[in-house]
Every structure is written in C-alpha cells, then in structure tokens.
What does this fold into?
Amino acid sequence: MINQWDNELLIFDGAMGTLIQNSKPGYNRLPELLNIADPELITNLHLKYIEAGADVITTNTFGANAYKLEKSGYTVKEVVQAAVKNAKATNSKNIALDIGPIGKAMAPVGDLTVDEAYALFKEQIIYAKNDVDLILIETMSSLLEAKTAILAAKENSDLPIFVTMTLDENERTLMGNDLTTIAVTLSALNVDAIGLNCSFGPKGLLEPIKTIIRNTNLPVMIQPNAGLPELIDDLTVYNYPADTFKEDIIEMINLGVRIIGGCCGTTPEFISKISELKGMQPGNVEKIKGSFVTSNSKTLDLKNGPLIIGERINPTGKKDLKDAIINENFDYIYREALNQVSAGANILDVNLGLPGINEKEKYKKIIPELQMITDAPLQIDTSDIEALEAALRVYEGRPIINSVSGKDKALHKVLPLAKKYGALVIGLTLDENGLPKDVEERIRIGKKIIETAKFYDIAEEDILLDCITLSISTNPRDAIDTLNAVEYFKKNTSVSTTLGASNISFGLPNRNLINVTFLSMALTKGLDAPITDPTVKEISDLFNAYFALTTKDIDCMHYIDEYKDQNITKTKFNEEEGSKNDLIESIVKGLKEPTIHSTKLLLDKHLPMVIVDDYLIKALNIVGDQYDNKEIFLPQLIRSASCVQEAFRLIKSSLDGKESVSKGKVLLATVEGDIHDIGKNIVKVLLENYGYQVIDLGKDVPKEIILEKIIQEDIQLVGLSALMTTTVKNMKDTIELINAKKPKCKIFVGGAVLTEEYARSINADYYCKDAQASVRVTQNFFINN
Amino acid sequence: MRIKKDNIELNFNQILKYLGYNNSSDLDHQTKNEIDDGLKLLFNKAQPKYVFKIFNEFELSNENIKLNSHFNIDSKDLFNHLKASESIVILAVTLGIKTDQLIKKEMLMNPSKGIILDAIASEFIEKSANEACKKIISEIQRFRNTRFSPGYGDLSLIIQEKIINELDTERKIGLYSNNSFLLTPSKSITAFFGLFDTKQSLRKTCKNCQFLENCRYRDEGVFCYDQSMG
It folds into this structure.
C-alpha cells in the first residue's frame, strides 16, 4: 500500500481523544470501550477525518490490550472487532490497526517480559488482521517494546507495519533510547515506515526528525501533538493554531517526511490543513552508508573504527566464569562487562556456552540485565541456534551475531535469522573442507558468505568477516595469510573485518608481545573490530598508542593523561607495599590496593585456607565488632567487605579448581512481591567474603522457585528478606512451604519490617536484625552442622 | 514536568540517617568523600520529573473519597487527612530509570558507593517531591498539608495502579507500577495532599506509621524522616 504513495504524501488522521471529550464531556472511561457502547459515534469521528482529507484512519484500539482491558468487563476480541467494524463502516480503503504501549514497563525495569508483551500484542493483531490494511505501532517509549510489537505483527500477519516512537524533552525516549539507535534498529527490522509521534508539538520534533531521516532509508512518518498542553480547570487543553501546524509540517516535508498525521489535541481542522499540502513533493533524502551496531542507547559505526570487542565473557578456560554461569552468580558476569568497558571495550562479546546448561534461558536472563548496566552494544556468541534466536528476540537494539561459518547448512540457518532480526553477522572463513589453508581459500569462502548473504538481502555493510586466526606455532604462514585476506576484503568489498587476535600466539612464550604486534599489523591493514581483551595492559597500551598515532586521540590528550603520572604512581605503590604489609590492617581500613598486594605476597607463603581463616575472617570479625559497637558504620563495613572480596578473587584464581574455599552453601532471596534487595545484597557480599557459597535468587521470588532451588542444590540454610508489611505474608507462606517439604532446612529472616516476635510467629528459625547477625547465624549453623 | 535541580537542597544529615549514622560526628573521611562523589554524580545524571492533577470537585463520605466516576478510595486514614481540604492533589514524581541504572552499576562495582548512592537517591526523591509540591501550590496561591502516600496507614498499595492511570504517568514521566504494585523506576513517589486557603502544618508525624510500636529510631530518640518538611 505504501507503494501506491511513492513520492507522494500519505495523510493519517488526528486524535480521537479530543473529539470524544468534545462529544461526550465528562466521559472518563476507556475510550476504546466506546466502540461497543457508542459505535455510531466512533464511525462518525472516523468519517470526520476522512472528510477532512485523511487517507488512512486508525482504529480506536490504542489501549485495547488485555492488561488495560482487564477490569473493563470486555475482552480484547470484543473491543478490537468492534473497533474494526466501526472503521469499516466508513467504507475507507485504508484502515490501520492502532497499537499503543501495553502500559507496563518491560523487564528488568518492570516485570513485563518479552514473551508476555508478545502475547498481548499478538492478541490484538489476530482479531483484526483480516480486516485492516496496515498496522500502526505508536507512542512507544521503549525500543524493546516496539520491537516486540513488530515481531508480533510480522509473525502473525502479512500487513505493512508503521512504527513511531515518542520522546522525552531530552530527545530520547523515557526509557533512554536515542534517536540514532531508534532509527537504525527499526530500519534493520524491515518495517515499512518509521518516525515519531506525540512527545511535543511540531516545532519540538523538527530536530529529532532530522536525525531519524539521516539514519534510515525507510519512509518517515510524523504525528505531532497540537503544541504543548495547558491545564485549565482540570482539563487538558491544546491551543496551537492549525495554520501554524501546517507551516511546521511544510518544513518537515521539505526535509523528506512523507507520512503525516496528528496526535494529542489535533482535530479534523488540522488534518484538513495538512491535506491542502497533498501533491507536495517530499524533499530528497540522502541514502545512509555505514555499518551500525547498537545497544539500547548508543550507536557505533564499524566503518568509523577500529572498535574493540571485549572477549572476556567466554567460559572457555575460565573456571570462575564457568562457575558463575552454572551457579547463576550473574553479578560476576556483569562485573566482567563493566571492567572491560572501563578498560576501553566498545562492544562486548557474550558467550555462555557450556555443556549441559540451558543456554537459551541464560541469555534471556542475562542480556536484559547487561543492557541495563552498560550501553555498550553486545555481540551474541553462540553455536546454539535456539539460544541465538532467543537472544535476538530479547536484545534491545541491533546486535552482532558471532558467528556463521561458510558451511552451507550453517549459512542457511543463521543468515535468515540475521535478516529477520536485523542483526549484523560475523562470517568465519572456514567451510565443509575445514580451516582455510591459504589466502585464496579465505577469500573464496568470504566471497561465498557475501553471495549467500545477498541471497537473503543482507548487504555487505551488514557483514563482518573473520579470516580466522590460527597459531603461527602450528601454521607459520598464518599471520601473513590472514592479514592479506583482511586487506583484500577491505579493498574490494564493503564488509567490515574482525579477528580473534589472541589465538595467533598459542604455544609460544611471551604471548602478549606477539598478540599486540599482530594486532598492530592487522589494524594497519584495516581491521575494523578486533576481538581481544582490553583489560590486559599491553593490549590497552597498544590501542592508546594507536589512537594517538592515527589522530583519533585528538592532540594525544588521552595518551598523555594515561601515562604522564606513570613514574609517580610506581613510587607511591612501592612505599605502600612496604609499609602496609599487614593484610588485616588493609582490610580493616578498607584499602583495596594494599589488600590486593598483601594477599599476593601471602599467597606465596601460605595455603589459601590459612589466609582465609587467619587473615580474612579475622579481619572481618574485627570489622564486625567495630560495626556492632558503632565505631564504624555501613559504608565502612561494605568497604572492608569489598576488600575481602578482592582478596578472595585472588585466592580462588590461585586454586585452579583443586580445592574449594566454600564453607557451606546458603540460599538467599527477597520474597515474592518485594523488590527491595539492598539489605540482602549486603548479606550476600558479607557471607561470600566469609567463605560461604551464596546462591542468590534475587528479588520478588515465588516460594515455589525457592523450594525448587533448595531441593536442586541440597540447601540446608536459607535467608529470606522482606521489607514491606504486605510481603511479610509471602515470607510466612514461603517458610510454611519449606517446612512442609524440607523440614531439615533452616531459615533465617531479615528486613526492616520484621521483629524477633514476628519472626518467631512465622516459624523462622532465626531472626537477624542486620547483616552482621546473618553472618553470625551462618557461622554458628555450619559449625554445628 | 521537569524539576529544576538548582532548587533542590539535600539534607546531608538525612542521607547519613539512611546509611545508619545517628550523628554526623561519626562520619569518616572516606565515606564523606564517597558521599560527595555520589552527590555530584546523581545531580549530574538524574532529572526529576513530576506530573499532577487537581480535583476541585470530589465526594467524601464514610471513610471513602470519590474523585470521579472510576476513582474511588477506601481509606480511613486518607479520608481523615483530606476531609478538611478544599481541593485534592495527586502527585507523581520520579528520578527516572537512569538513577536505577547508576545505582545498580555502582552496587556491582563498588558496593559501599552503591549503598551511598541509594541513600542519596532516596533523599533526592523526597526533596524533589517537596519541590514539586512547592511549585504546584505557588502557581495557584494556596496552602497544602503533608503528603500522604500509598502504603501509609491503611491506604493500600493497590491504589498505585489507579494513580498511574489517572495521571498517565507512563506516557508523561515513564513511571509504572509492577505486578506487586511497587513503583518502577524505584526512586519514585506518588502522593495525595489537600489544598487549603489557610496555612497548614507541614510537620511529619509518626502517627500513621506501621512501626509506631516497634521503631528503632524512636527507641533511640531520633526520627527516620527529615523533620523540616513533609
């Protein structure tokens, strides 16, 4: 349908709300219910817009989802079908199914999961799809919610899809999505038109729409409000003149906007004015060129690199990470992510592959959390197709898929997914014959990948080729061949290039030297996205120098800043090392660097368990007593605990899996209905530092899940927290369930709302008035058991 | 609507209270530095926003407040709080999602800074709510009484959903309630207050608190809240 209007304007309708307010003053139920209560009114309102010149009318279904209709007494089916019927009664040939936001925040900010949102959108679509001509997804504040609606539309209908988002005053959505990211992500999802609606009046949308236009090749749509609202005597009133609105729209059409309608406050008069512009030619739009990868709030261009892809979130050869994935201690992974970003990683590779785990479920949990704490785009690194698709569905933005090989079977499985979800994809130049033997084979396979991708309508700009880094100790010519292949592709195609650089030195001494030199060579050949570890000093040094040398670090400012104090820091360090040898003192004073140093020195002399008992626990006990005596307070307690955490990390990594430092397992959870977890997290930090393995189920945890975990992990001691009177009942129920099914399991409880008497009355075994008390209870428990 | 951050003054001692200190003299140097860092960070990144609605017409009867045909509240304590007022205001304020993200990030990397940031944010939202109230009443030249939020006394949390809908907070300021009627982003406040033509007391009181009989602050002779403004 959009094709009928090639190079011509398409006019949508204006607001329903204002008209309803005028026709039925005082009506304050859901507007969608009028489809059933007063169908004639709705049909007449549609007709008013058609008379005013609207090419497309939108059904009165903005909030017609099961969540919003829950208490209305009507089903989605009833409302949507009535709405469609009312629109059809106008005999309009162009009816858009209007879909607005569900009304709940997407997880992890809120508790609406992608699967739940999908189901709610799907429901609206299936009842209308046979009777409407397109789907309009509008007023979205969350890119993830918009994407989910798009998937619901694509997978349940064949209709054209138009998507518009709504902005906050700082030109991002309320959930923080920026304009470039919105344009890039929605365009990659292959919808039929994208744009902005609501937000403010037309003047406020002028600059934002320019950004959208610059970053998409799709037709652009705008539905502004009639200026900014005023509150007059309890009523929201819009006072913007329709003529001014028209002038503003002319400016936008000149920029290239093709599809225009009106949002809050607009009336048939506005649409009438805009219709006078029919026949106007939309301005010419410059085609975009670039290879954009995004998070939910940042877009990076691989053509403007090099971009560092952090490789650390990969369990191969990393026991700590393996344990973290298996035990669902995801905080470890999040910290790795943040550390890499601090060290200079632009993009993060996320590999959770371990035998026997449900990779799909891990991705569904981890990706949203990662996206909450960092704005670095992510690279989904998996060979499990199901896990890949699940990850692609929950990713907010445009990710990179790592990877697909040149094997036919793989290409035809992965490339369609890349296309569907709009992801960039890394192609590995190996195929059914195995690893490439020379430059020619790398080039041949790379070309095959490009051709096959073309078949799926994937452009070269959306591909990264990895020409495979093998080790020069087993394949002497490998560095030369790989680099020549990189050069070839950079010169002759528009793909980006990537390499997992660390393999090159496998089997050789002084690996870092080979790695950084290889990386330098590759960068000069045009390597766009090295997959490497920026937390390794030599690697980050290399990039600091590289950016200075290539003028990316303007005036070498960052370089100078990084290295100017080098001599001073070194001396200071040695002094501290000398005088603060005492590990206990460092912990008690909450000093991180001296703690790390002292621990390292002690590890050379003592057994790990000795360090734990004679130093760490001793220090913590001192700190605990100081806290109880109000000599120190919570921040200091936590600081000392963090120091112990650092010491523990060093100790664990020196153990190599031969021994465990765990003194016992404890399960922690904040009960269902409660999302306060700061207290529980403090307990967790302390218990871990005291040597206990903590399984943290997080917050708002149903009792059944807690029980399941207790059985699964054979837990003997559980800590429950609740901060609200309303959720204490859930605590009581949880305890009841545990006592019934696992009577031997002991339970300690904490939280501001609890008292000793109450804890007793709900059959908790121990009451802990603060974090320290939890530690004492745990210590006593494991001594006696 | 945005709240001008310049107009907001945080009470340092109140932040200390949230962190468990009863006396600022107990404060150590490093914690003070971390608080200062946290203040800078939050003032830089958080943008408090609010939205409100004034009801000049409403019905009061039998411990029930009827604001319009579909907004009915049963609460003896709220009823008592509002029964003498000439108008009723519903207010929603939030520091936004960015604040939650910052706290989460900080808790991961540096837990002592994380809890400090959390405490600062709690104080920030309280003072933002006060500032929003100030703006509202100054524009209409009336007086207000203290804020009364869901969760106080017998005012059930279930009312959050109604407030969210009535004020359209999702669309206007990105404030939602979740399945357990908790607000998200977490540093947010919704509240009722009454408007009057004469000055009212803005002193907060322990009267309606669930911990009245069992409060560790009262046992020590101090208050959990900032006594200066409600």
